[in-house]
Specification:
The structure holds 2 protein chains of 2 kinds. Chain A is an all-alpha fold. Helix content of chain A is 76%, strand content 1%. Chain A has a two-stranded antiparallel ribbon with strand order 1-2. The longest helix of chain A is centred in the last third of the chain and has 39 residues. The radius of gyration of chain A is 23 Å and the shape is globular. The relative contact order of chain A is 0.14. In chain B, the strands form 2 sheets. Chain B has a 6-stranded mixed beta sheet, sandwiched between helices. Chain B has a 4-stranded antiparallel beta sheet with strand order 2-1-4-5, with helices on one face. In chain B, helix 3 packs across helix 4. Chain B is globular, with a radius of gyration of 18 Å. The N terminus of chain B is likely disordered. The chains are: A mainly alpha, B alpha/beta. At the A-B interface, helix 7 and helix 8 of A face helix 2, helix 3 and helix 6 of B.
Chain lengths: 286, 269
């Protein structure tokens, strides 16, 4: 074997092993959670509240709480992120100020989530008097996902060729008409995909909701957006570290983790489906 | 500086050759940031004639063309000085709506840019954004535009298929049809045939000849034979300056300046 061919072979082997180790780690985690948690999953687990000091019953309030908070997050972050991206990418003067704003947004996505939690307490709980509630937690998670949504939306807008914009403008379209009819239709799949991936990350966060609305245990389901709530990630945290009898509730903790992972997997599937749907539509136009 | 029109020095005069002036440019300067791209250009574009801009790459001819529908404004950091009059009114005047300018002065780009929509929707696009809702009227104008752009016979059975399935030459004629649909007065063409094979080029050139009956046409081309074939007036640009402009037959047979002669005979740096 020549030296070049050998180097080639070693290179590919190293790359392949790296990929394999990542996949195996993931599969290992999934197997661990599934094998330990699958036994507790049943209809009652999904639809009933916890009983007997969380050693019996289900996780329905936590599941509902996470869904409600995610809904607030989507309603808040998706439009705001998309419109900000449109402004930054299409309208704003591309000077130093916009570059700084963009850099700040990129950096915000790296800020630890506990910082968002503290900010959420200061702004939504205290200043806006939303209290410790679904609303405060949803908005806080919305802030957390905004950098992701804005960045993904800007990237999606950038993939639309300039010739689509110019072609429309040259026919007498206003800037907004050109964007609405000839840019957004082709960038919405990318925008929504980014938004959903951001949401999937937010749905699994514990720290931002810790101070802004999540509760240890609430026997009743929330009635308004200003109620406190239970959430899957926080419930999992409680069961695995704060419960007085951790060994007993371990299967329930694993079951909760499994439900949370399944939920996030569902969200990602929605992103895939949206992309598939729009791609099919785009292909039909080709 | 080259001035043209009546009572100007011989050889560079008479560019409007008896036709009314459609576009009149006076002392136009154009900058990309600090860099001057067009230097003190004055010229008159006659109505219902084909005016060709020739010159080497980077001479400013495309930049100049894009001044006529204010498309340069979409590029950051550009600046323009001087006046461009369309039928006597200043295109860059304070009360002029840029959207209206672009409706009156249509454009066909160098690289054909059909939208990823159906053939019908491509041609109807300009009508819809200009607020025409009457479906029957849209159908009528789309058909007429496709007929006028010599594309109708080739696409009439697949109007609702994607425009991206057309050949390069068909796509470019579709872009012409799309421009015609909004009923412009002037059509700017930026090297419309540069990516096309000889047969498709021939079709575009034939089309240009037909279109000048109704429209004023300004075409930028790299190809001097093309300029000689299709245009009535030719203007030669070099390094951001308008060197010479004349009736095409005269410019190519009796260029007044050595620079022009060198370029059209191919003896160029």
């Amino acid at each position: 074997m020549t030296r070049k061919a050998l180097i080639e072979k070693i290179g590919f082997t190293v790359l392949g092993l790296c990929a394999l180790s990542v996949i195996l780690t993931l599969l290992g985690i999934l197997w661990n959670i599934t094998s330990n948690g699958a036994s507790v999953i049943n209809w009652e687990f999904i639809t009933q509240p916890p009983r007997e000091g969380m050693t019996q019953g289900g996780i329905f309030p936590a599941l509902l709480g996470t869904l409600l908070v995610s809904l607030i997050t989507v309603l808040f972050a998706v439009p705001l992120g998309m419109f900000s991206a449109i402004y930054l990418n299409e309208y704003a003067y591309q000077g130093r100020l916009v570059r700084m704003i963009r850099l700040s947004i990129r950096n915000l996505s790296g800020v630890p989530s506990i910082v968002y939690g503290l900010f959420g307490v200061a702004l939504f709980v205290r200043v806006f008097h939303f209290g410790s509630s679904i609303l405060s937690a949803g908005l806080t998670l919305g802030l957390l996902t905004l950098p992701w949504t804005i960045t993904a939306s800007e990237e999606a807008l950038k993939t639309v060729p300039k010739s689509y914009r110019d072609g429309a403008l040259a026919l007498g379209a206003t800037k907004w008409q050109a964007i609405r009819t000839n840019v957004l239709p082709y960038s919405i799949p990318g925008m929504l995909t980014g938004a959903i991936l951001g949401l999937a990350r937010a749905a699994g966060e514990t720290a931002p909701i810790l101070f802004t609305g999540a509760a240890f245990f609430i026997p009743d389901l929330p009635r308004t957006l200003f109620d406190q709530f239970m959430a899957l990630p926080y419930h999992l945290y409680i069961l695995s570290t704060q419960h007085q009898d951790i060994a007993t509730v371990r299967p329930i903790a694993y079951g909760t983790a499994l439900v949370l992972i399944a939920l996030i997997l569902c969200l990602n599937m929605v992103a895939v489906l949206i992309r598939y749907h729009y791609r099919k539509k785009a292909r039909m136009a080709q | 500086m080259v001035t043209i029109g009546i009572d100007k020095k011989p050889g560079t005069g008479g560019a409007s050759n008896g036709h009314t002036v459609k576009i009149s440019v006076k002392n136009l300067n154009f900058y990309y940031g600090p860099q001057k791209a067009l230097d003190d250009i004055s010229v008159e574009i006659p109505a219902n004639q084909v005016t060709a801009f020739i010159g080497p790459s980077g001479c400013g001819k495309s930049t100049f063309l894009r001044c006529f529908n204010r498309m340069n404004e979409t590029i950051l950091g550009t600046r323009i000085q001087g006046t461009i009059l369309l039928d006597g009114s200043d295109l860059y005047g304070p009360d002029i709506d840029v959207v209206e300018v672009r409706r009156r002065v249509g454009m066909v780009f160098q690289k054909s840019n059909p939208f990823p929509k159906t053939i019908f929707d491509n041609v109807a696009y300009g009508l819809r954004i200009n607020g025409i809702k009457d479906k029957r009227k849209i159908v009528e104008i789309v058909e007429k535009s496709l007929v006028d752009s010599a594309l109708w016979d080739e696409v009439k059975d697949r109007l609702h298929e994607s425009a991206l399935g057309l050949s390069g030459g068909q796509q470019q004629r579709l872009c012409i049809a799309r421009a015609l649909a909004v009923q412009p007065e002037v059509i700017l063409m930026d090297e419309p045939a540069s990516a096309l094979d000889p047969i498709a080029t021939q079709k575009i050139e034939d089309l240009i000849q037909k279109l000048k009956i109704k429209y004023t046409i300004v075409i930028v081309t790299h190809n001097m034979q093309q300029a000689a074939r299709v245009s009535d007036i030719t203007a030669f640009f070099y390094l951001g300056k308008l060197i010479e402009v004349n009736e095409t037959a005269l410019l190519f047979t009796r260029p007044q300046l050595k620079q022009t002669e060198d370029y059209i005979t191919g003896r160029f740096g």
